[in-house]
Design a protein that fits this description.
This protein has 665 residues and is an alpha/beta fold. Among the domains are: 174 residues, Rossmann fold, CATH 3.40.50; 144 residues, Tetratricopeptide repeat domain (Serine Threonine Protein Phosphatase 5, Tetratricopeptide repeat). The chain has a five-stranded mixed β-sheet with strand order 2-1-3-4-5. Strand 3 and strand 4 form a beta hairpin. Helix 15 runs antiparallel to helix 16, helix 19 packs antiparallel against helix 20 and helix 28 packs antiparallel against helix 29.
């Protein structure tokens, strides 16, 4: 079953299927990395098994709204020879202890039971997480008077599960359908069809679809049932499932039945804002950019109170490179009071980015600006983050952005806000980003006081000690910093935190370390080689801090600049041994291997990296280029489209696009 596990993981990550003789499944497993990888087992029901499975299909779609959650639908007990397999309903009614898929890298399991008593439904879900400090299975029970009420409750249930898993904030463009108007009598048929759809995707990934399977028929049936249900739910369900089928691993089977037909879908589900939004996003991804923007412009006018449509339109403007239209859309939403925490977060981030580029917007939506100086951009961004925190006060990422703006402004609210961030941030990562900015302040003694108080209150938290050590180093107190680092080292085995500890120890031992590293970086980025003393300095840094990434990359790039590919490769292989999942290491390794003729091995490394970092734009772009060079055009287009949707201005992506354009001329 290793092949099925590989294909499930690839499908969930938006990658193509893995060939039998390609990357081993073990290389796709990333047990200690984000995102959360949820195995969704069947919902068992004596009275209505297919409806129960349909509910699980809906739950899977809802959970995937969280950026840090991947979902594997284990809806079929896949055993035996797929070529001889014939599905039976009993194969989709089993418990987590009855069957598990070897080689799958799930770290969360969800399974349950649906009991029908008269018209009353009792849903019981069990959640078990490998990331939980204990091994307890958490059980959630929900009682609903009818099926429609239970479906309408599923978004809330998904939110409770995400909170239980500490999955962070839901994605900025949240498309949870408004179920008003849903036709209950047709709902059962749609849920059955949703289950059958997910079953077929799994069978396809297992190479066990029956020979008479017809995608056109299946698509038409699901689409008609979704239209019959009405309301927003039907359209949302159909388009969500259609987009899942068009992921690279299953796209060839469904492409002729689905791709390029989004205008028809939007026309059929014109009363479903969720369907219009999802279909417009898909249409944009297939190259119909102007049409997709017009679809969402009309939808935002038709449903002016839907913040997801405003965000969706702003996102398409971003992907089109139209910053002014994106700003106008977000500001209009703020002025219309159609907002969310995510909208304020995105608006604040956009302002901060423009300000870094020295740009000032034409007008402001949140502050009474006296002029159009750059400082007003910071003030407007801070106001956006404050407004977002009023809606979601527990958002540590939002609070960190606010604190950074207050550092920039030298605002008196800085230290109370920083203290609140230290309380909220349970990993220390958000706080660490703020401490790095203390160099902008003449006096940050109050910040050190806050960190010392936090360490005293939580002496066993290594992350707090590391952050305090960083602040002490900036305050020119290396001995005190070293004491904190020694204690932190005893408290953690977390690799990223250990890497940070090693980096800071280098600065403790050599107060000029950061300056020296900066000077070396300037030389390397200028395309120059390094004198022997700088090479020796980096080699010593690697020996003393083997988990710290920067010296490896600088040394490897310096050797590349000096046309010493063999030495660069040796450095990168050492880095890969100590830091196996670092995307920058994988990118450089792949480039060197490809240029040396080891093309299959280069693609192996890129596949490994994308399995762990499916949204890394340089890896996506580089893999797209190499697949293009091997005339695998469909997969290349899929990877490049995904890269462009994430960051159209990425340097590596633009380099690849220019290369392909030259080849096509």
């Amino acid at each position: 079953m290793e092949q099925l596990a590989s294909n499930l993981m690839a499908h969930a990550r938006g990658l193509g299927v893995v060939d039998d003789d390609s990357v081993p499944t073990s290389s796709l497993r990333s047990l200690n990395t984000s995102p959360l990888r949820v195995g969704l087992w069947p919902l068992v029901s004596d009275e209505a098994p297919e409806i129960a499975m349909g509910l699980m299909a809906v739950l899977g779609l809802l959970l995937e709204r969280w950026p840090f959650i991947l979902v594997y639908r284990l809806f079929v007990r896949a055993e035996g020879d797929p070529a001889a397999y014939r599905w039976q309903l009993a194969d989709s009614q089993f418990d987590v202890d009855d069957w598990q898929l070897d080689y799958l890298d799930e770290n969360v399991a969800i399974w349950g039971r649906l009991v029908e008593s008269g018209s009353t439904l009792t849903l019981t879900l069990n959640v078990e997480s490998d990331l939980s400090p204990d091994d307890d299975v958490q059980t959630l029970t929900y009682i609903s008077p009818d099926l429609a009420s239970l479906v309408e409750r599923l978004p809330v249930i998904a939110g409770e599960i995400a909170a239980m898993l500490d999955a962070g904030p839901v994605g900025p463009i949240t498309v949870a359908a408004d179920d008003a108007g849903m036709q209950p009598e047709a709902l059962s048929d749609l849920l059955r069809a949703m289950f059958h759809w997910e079953r077929d995707l799994l069978l396809l990934l297992w190479n066990a679809l029956p020979e008479d399977f017809d995608a056109e028929t299946r698509v038409a049936s699901l689409r008609d049932m979704a239209a019959t249900v009405g309301g927003d739910f039907g359209g949302w369900a159909f388009v969500s499932l259609a987009r899942r089928a068009l992921r690279p691993a299953t796209r060839p089977t469904y492409e002729s039945a689905l791709a390029g037909r989004w205008a028809d879908v939007i026309a059929q589900f014109q009363d479903s804002p969720a369907a219009v939004l999802l279909a417009a996003q898909a249409r944009f991804g297939e190259g119909q950019e102007a049409e997709a923007v017009r679809d969402l412009q009309r939808a935002a006018s038709q449903w002016p109170d839907r913040v997801d449509l405003r965000l969706g339109l702003a996102e398409l403007y971003r992907r089109s490179g139209n910053a002014q239209e994106m700003i106008d859309t977000l500001q209009q939403a703020i002025e219309d009071d159609v907002t969310s925490a995510s909208l304020f977060f995105i608006y604040g981030g956009l302002l901060a980015s423009l300000r870094q580029s020295g740009l000032v917007i034409n007008r402001f939506a949140l502050i009474d600006a006296r002029d159009r100086q750059l400082e007003r951009m910071v003030e407007e961004a801070a106001a956006a983050y404050e407004a977002g925190l009023e809606l979601e006060p527990q958002r540590a990422d939002m609070l960190q952005r606010l604190v950074l703006m207050l550092v920039d402004l030298g605002d008196e609210r800085l230290w109370p806000s920083f203290e609140r961030l230290v309380e909220l941030d349970k990993t220390g990562e958000q706080v660490r980003g703020v401490v790095e900015s203390f160099t902008l302040l003449e006096d940050f003694a109050e910040g050190i006081d806050v960190l010392e108080a936090a360490v005293a209150a939580h002496p066993d938290r290594a992350d707090l000690r590391v952050n305090l050590a960083m602040a002490l180093l900036l305050a020119d107190e290396p001995d005190a910093a070293g004491e904190q680092l020694e204690q932190a080292q005893e408290l953690t085995d977390d690799s990223p935190l250990m890497a940070e500890i090693e980096r800071l120890f280098l600065a403790v031992d050599d107060p000029e370390f950061e300056i020296r590293l900066g000077e070396i970086t300037e030389l390397v980025e200028a395309g120059k080689g390094l004198p022997q003393r700088d090479i020796a300095y980096l080699e010593d840094a690697i020996d003393n801090a083997p988990l710290f990434l920067a010296p490896y990359l600088l040394l490897a790039r310096a050797f590349i600049n000096q046309n010493q590919a063999d030495r660069a490769l040796e450095v990168l292989l050492d880095a890969q041994q100590n830091l196996p999942d670092e995307p920058e290491v994988i990118e450089l390794l792949a480039r060197l291997l490809w240029d040396s003729g080891e093309k299959d091995l280069a693609l192996d490394y890129l596949n490994n990296g994308l399995a762990v970092h499916p949204d890394d734009v340089p890896l996506l772009a580089l893999a797209g280029r190499y697949l293009f060079e091997q005339e695998q055009d469909a997969e290349a287009r899929a990877l490049l489209a995904r890269a462009e949707s994430l960051n159209p201005r990425n340097r590596v992506l633009r380099e690849v696009q220019s290369f392909i354009a030259r080849q096509l001329d």
